[in-house]
Amino acid sequence: MAQRLWIGGSAIVLFVLVVLFGLGLPILLVWPWWVLGLVAAAALVLAIPAFLLRRWVARKRPGWSPVRSFAAITAVLFMALTATVAFPLYWLAYLVDARPTTMPLVTLTDGTKTVQFQGMQHIGSETFYKSVVYDLREALDNGYRLFYEGVQPVDGRPDLTEWFDRFATGGNTDLSEGYKALADGCGMQFQLDYFKGLTKDFTVHPARHVTADVTYLDMKTEYDRLMRDDPAFAKEMGGAGRKDATPKSDGNVVKSFLEFWQAGTPAQRKLLGFACRGFFSWTFAQKQAPSQKDKVILTFRNEKLARRIVDEAENKIWITYGAAHIPGVIADLQKIDPKWRVVSIRWSRVIANPDELDGELR
Fold first, then answer.
1. In this structure, how many other beta carbons lie within 10 angstroms of the beta carbon of residue 256?
2. Residue 253: is its pLDDT beyond 70?
3. How confident is the model at residue 170 (pLDDT cuts 50, 70, 90)?
4. What does the domain layout of the chain look like in residue ranges?
5. Which of 34, 162, 284, 297 shows a CA-CA span of 20 to 30 A to 290?
6. Closest of 155, 290, 291, 167 to residue 221, by C-alpha
7. List of E strands, the chain
8. At a CB cut-off of 8 Å and minimum separation 6, what does 358 contact?
9. In this predicted structure, what is the pLDDT of residue 58?
C-alpha cells in the first residue's frame, strides 16, 4: 500500500513538474542561450549532492544504475529550476488581473456646485484613457468646465522648469519624456497622447478648458519658504533641486530597465512589458510612506486647487488630476466649507494586459 502511494504520488509530482517546465521553457528560450545554460549548469551542480545521497541509500538495490540515477536527478532539477526562474514573470502577469489597479471618479457637491474629480495616472492602458476622453467630451456637451493638471512654465524662466525636474526626479530628467519612455517599455500609453483628441475643442471653446495648476515659480517659492521655516523639510530635502543633485536610485533603476528594453528583441520586450505592468500593479497596491517632498508636490497644490474650485464662477466642473491629490483636495474643500461632501465614487481599471485578438477575413 505504501509503495503504491509512493509511486502514485511521485507520478503526480512528476506530471505537475513537466507541465510547469513546459510553461517555463518558452520564457527561457526568449533570452540569450547562456541563460538556459546557467540553469542547466546550476542543475548539474545541485544534482551532485543529491546524487551522492541517493547513491548511499540505493546503491545496493538490484538494477540500480548510477548513470541513470544522476541523469534523472539532473533532469528533475533542471525542470524545477526552469519553472522557478519563469515563475516570477507568470506571477507578475497574474497580478495585473488578480489585483487590478483602479482610478476613482469622485462626485462632489456643496449643494450648489457639482465637481467630477477623475483620478489620473501618468501611464496606463489605452482603454482607460479612451474612456476618460469620452467622459470629457460628454462633460463638455453637458456644460462642464474642464480643469486639468499641469504645472505651468514661466516665460523667460526655463531655469524654474529645470529646477522642478531635478527636484521631482533627483536628476536632470524631463518628466514627460520619462513617463512616455516608461509607457513604451511597459506596453502601456502616456496620458497626454490621448488628450490630443480634445485639441479641436481647445481651439473652438478655449474658455471651457483650464489648466488649474500652479506655476513652477509658485512651487519654487513654496519650496524656499519650507526650506527656511520647516526644519524637517529642510533636513530631508538636503540638496534636492541643485544642479549637482545625484539622481535617485529608483530613477537609475527605471533608466536601466529602459536601456535593457531598448536593446531587447520584440519577444523580450513583450515579456518585459508583462513584468513591468505586474510590478506597477504590485507597487500601486502598497501604501506609500509620506514624504517631506509631498508638502510641495501634493499639499501645496491641493490647497491651491481647492481654493480655485471654490472661487470658480461655473457650477459644473470636471477635473482630471493625479489620484493622489483627491483625498487632500476633499479635505481642503471641507476646511473651506463643511458642506462639501462626496456623493458617489466610480472606479475604472487603469492597467491591463493587452488583448491579442486574431481573426480571418472571409
1. 10
2. no
3. low
4. 2-98, 102-349
5. 162
6. 167
7. 102-109, 114-120, 123-124, 145-148, 189-190, 209-211, 316-322, 341-349
8. none
9. 66
